[in-house]
Amino acid sequence: MPVLQLDGGDLFGRRNQNERFQTEFLCEEVADLGVDAIGLGEQDLNYGLKFLRSMMDKYGLQFTSANVKDAATGKLILPEYLIVKRGGITFGIVSVLDPAQKILTMTADDSQFQVDDPVATLRELVPRLREKVDTVVLLGHLGDSQTDNVVKEIQGIDISVTGHTYRNITTERILNDTVMLGASYEGRYLGDADLMIDPDNGKVMAVAIKVTPMDDKVADDPEMLKKVKDFKQRLVDFKEAKRAAYPRTFGSDQENFLGDRSCKGCHEDAWNVYAKSAHMKAYMTLRNKGQHFEPDCLVCHTTGYQYKNGYADEAPYNRLINVQCEACHGYGTQHARDGKWVTQAKDSCVVCHDKENSPEFDYDTYWAKIKH
Length: 372
Ligand code: HEC
Ligand code: HEC
Ligand code: HEC
Ligand code: HEC
Hints:
Elements: E1 6-7, H1 17-33, E2 37-39, H2 48-59, E3 63-64, E4 68-70, E5 82-86, E6 89-97, E7 113-115, H3 118-130, E8 135-141, H4 144-153, E9 159-163, E10 174-175, E11 178-181, E12 189-197, E13 204-213, H5 222-244, H6 261-264, H7 268-276, H8 282-288, H9 295-301, H10 325-329, H11 340-352, H12 363-370
Parallel strand pairs: 1-2, 2-3, 6-8, 8-9, 9-11
Antiparallel strand pairs: 4-7, 5-6, 10-11, 12-13
The structure holds heme C (4 copies).
Residues 278-279, 281-282, 285, 300-301, 323, 327-328, 345, 348-349, 351-353, 366-367, 369-370 line the site of one heme C.
């Protein structure tokens, strides 16, 4: 039985180097499974357009989008549609992205994007595509209700696959003349639709839908299992190599960071200033950007990253998030009152406030903001 394999988008991972590494593995395997078309999701631009294109070239992945453009040139960044012949039917596959979805790439120097209105885009494109194909398929990267709205507005879509959704469509559902399909996220479910298509006009005449959870009841493929196991080892090596770029060269195994709370009781005034400062939010800043496993960022947004017994992703060292008292003053176990701690703290700023990350840095102005 001929099969058309479709993906509604957001194949790529979150914006950090580990996920990017994992995404390449995923691309290779998805390509191996023979997916025919992938509708562009905003996540698929997380690592920039260059990376997306390189994955398409390297693994032959078929991404498509009819409404995402390079803002500078006004040109579509991907093929406007895809044509796939299967079982004697010619399918035209189009995808649109919800303009409300923020596209944020990890690469600062990358293109800016412009996302056109999905309805206006399809109103012009679908009739043009119908001339060339038997059956029109929409990969709407729009979520549930928006996909419904678009399908109601546009004539001539035979099959719709909803992307950017957390919901499965488990029963036969027809909206106007369109067959509505959808399977939840992260490949947790496999949606399977048996379609009977009239070869004369490309219309779907009958449909039977099945959604299978990809849980423990589905036996693992031994070959794939081995690949995943090997990949996990490569991921560990990759993470270690990145951590190794910031060796724990400073301090001593004998000393410890006691944590900011341990200072609070005796230094109430200093605490109050610190609690209001940006330093106490430095880790949250990374979390908000999904970069809190990134050694390249943690090195300055945590306490003692390059010190023995300093910040690590694992307990108990993971409580040393943020730029705490001891990031400037040093190990709490070395607490002294001889003035050394004050001098040490004054010299600490420029380690993190370097030209690249804090171009405006000036000791007097900056100290004035956190004086204690
Ligand atoms: C361990 C790294 C580190 C050290 C050491 C450090 N900072 Fe910072 N500082 C940061 C980070 C990271 C931020 C940004 C925090 C955020 O907003 O997430 C920051 C932000 C600030 C801000 C807030 C900037 C603004 O405009 O609101 C001031 C002021 C500041 N630092 C002053 C200092 C001074 C003065 C020193 C030295 C006495 C110092 N810092 C030492 C990492 C450091
Ligand atoms: C060499 C130290 C250093 C590194 C590495 C570093 N930062 Fe920072 N970051 C700072 C400092 C210092 C500031 C405060 C700059 C200022 O206000 O002058 C800052 C500020 C920021 C801010 C602005 C905070 C705000 O609310 O205005 C963001 C966002 C940020 N960093 C994210 C990152 C990310 C993401 C990475 C990793 C890719 C990173 N930083 C790596 C030192 C660093
Ligand atoms: C961003 C770096 C930084 C952080 C974070 C920081 N300090 Fe300081 N602290 C300094 C610097 C620099 C001085 C010395 C300022 C001076 O005398 O010019 C100082 C001075 C002090 C002093 C001596 C004050 C005096 O003059 O007697 C105490 C006590 C102190 N800090 C406690 C704390 C405590 C407690 C925290 C956390 C709640 C904290 N500091 C967080 C940089 C920092
Ligand atoms: C049991 C009470 C106590 C605790 C806990 C404590 N300190 Fe102190 N600290 C003092 C006293 C007392 C002084 C000397 C008087 C002063 O400067 O306030 C002092 C002085 C300091 C100074 C000035 C040192 C100098 O040479 O002038 C700094 C900086 C400091 N403490 C930071 C910290 C930090 C950071 C922590 C948490 C890791 C901390 N203290 C925990 C009691 C404490």
